[in-house]
Fold this sequence. Notes:
Blueprint: E1 10-12, E2 15-17, E3 24-28, E4 35-40, H1 44-62, H2 66-82, H3 84-95, H4 99-105, H5 107-120, E5 128-131, E6 134-142, E7 145-149, H6 155-168, E8 172-176, H7 183-194, E9 202-204, H8 209-217, E10 223-227, H9 230-242, E11 246-250, E12 256-259, H10 265-277, E13 289-293, H11 297-308, H12 329-344, E14 348-351, E15 370-373, H13 380-383, E16 390-396, H14 399-407, E17 414-418, H15 422-431, E18 436-439, E19 458-459, H16 466-470, E20 472-479
Parallel strand pairs: 7-8, 7-10, 8-9, 10-11, 12-13, 12-17, 13-16, 15-16, 17-18
Antiparallel strand pairs: 1-2, 3-4, 5-6, 6-20, 11-19, 14-15
Helix pairs in contact: 2-5, 2-7, 3-4, 4-5, 5-6, 6-7, 8-9, 10-11
Bound molecules: NADPH dihydro-nicotinamide-adenine-dinucleotide phosphate.
Amino acid sequence: xxxxxxQASHFIDGQYVEDLAGSEINCVYAATGETIAVLHSAxxxxxDKALSAAVRAQKQxxxxxxxxxxxxxxxxxxxxxARNQELSELETLDTGKPIQETLVADALSGAEALxxxxxxxxxxxxxTVPLGEDFVYTMREPLxxxxxxxxxxxxxxxxxxxxxxxxxxxxxxxxxxxxxxxLGALKLAEILIxxxxxxxxxxxxxxxxxxxxxxxxxxxxxxxxxxxxxPTGRKVxxxxxxxxxxxxxxxxxxxxxxxxxxxxxxxxxxxxxxxNFYSTGQICSNGTRVFVQRDIRAKxxxxxxxxxRQAVVGDPLDPETQIGPxxxxxxxxxxxxxxxxGKAEGxxxxxxxxxxxGDRYAxxxxxxxxxxxxxxxxxxxAREEIFGPVLSVLEFGDEDEVIARANATEFGLxxxxxxxxxxxAHRVVARxxxxxxxxxxxxxxxxxxxxxxxxxxxxxxxxSRAAIEHYSQLKSVYVAMGDVEAPF
Length: 488
Ligand code: NDP
């Protein structure tokens, strides 16, 4: 029996806090169905405690020199790196993602965000605007208390991607993880305290959507940053608007990956695999509509199927495993239903399409990596975000056609282009409606580069200097050097 029970459900004001009156949250290991922890959803009293602590800590934190804030964040990055093995195992238990992924892509990505924003904290300054003798100076000030709300696919990374820029700018944060993956953010809270952050600066409260909604409605909150689906984004954005709060929305996608006939096929196949099967397909920016130019489609699909057939599906704690289970049984059911719809609407199933057989898969939420060929634009699987290991191949003729089809979606999170023609690559990317584009690769999201969506996929940007704009506000100060003239 695996046990990942934390000391208590919430982390507030520098310590673990429990309130058993909150409804139970069962934390289940997706590979076996075992309960690994039981937590409790935050009650109004817990929410109040977290926000009060954040309000107090924020003032103390904002009064520090920025370079001191940066030191705390960089120390937290070092602690995460030192504890990567343990944090990755916890992340695997929490999400079901293979350990070979979590060891490189979760806590370590979080550490990079803390290091990056720790490094630039001291460089967050205003400007001087000369006006003859008079002048204006600007100050980049923190917003105050930020609420972070996370999805379940990258719980630790999401917590760090939100906390790092927020704290670097002098804000405090109350973070609510997805109730499906509540454990990783608690570790970040512990680590920030160990790194020297004041108690109350980063608090974690657990709960379902109602807890997120309760946080957003509170007058003490100045900003909400959500990673989640478009329907939740709509609700959260609307609730934030009531209080004129700042928002960052990192929402879903149905991103195109366009492969022209002159592309390096082996690289394009690798990208299509990464863009659909990494994290068992549970990635917002995945290139789930793989547009392949007519003359190479058959060859591309044959190679894609041949390589994907070799994927090792299994126990996520086994270092050899490449594809783990889906996060929950409900998510697997949702994905299997999409696969059935794909078949019913006439897509040609060329790999997978079901559940792997055998004792070792019996208790987990496993699903075979699935590839459909002959997918057309109007099919459900080409229009809706599936959030599972389901790849759709769509054939196209020429450049104008594929751009129009790639853009014919409400989403605009990401896009990829494979071609050896450098002019075409830039020409196509310039016309794609997506916040993040890749040329001859896919799904690389270094902290140095802005990340976020256009259209329904989101508002604002995470990572890079751009995130600073979203966690701070400008104060403009006019300084008069002469006398004041008045009409009377
Ligand atoms: P959801 O939208 O269901 O939930 C996101 C978070 O919002 C959860 O913590 C959820 O709590 C909370 N929530 C739900 N309703 C409300 C509400 N009314 N007010 C406040 N908070 C609320 O997303 P999933 O967790 O299912 O994650 C998958 C989605 O996330 C996909 O669409 C994916 O594309 C997107 N995503 C986007 C990323 C990006 O960077 N653009 C990255 C990763 C994922 P609860 O869990 O209790 O419902």
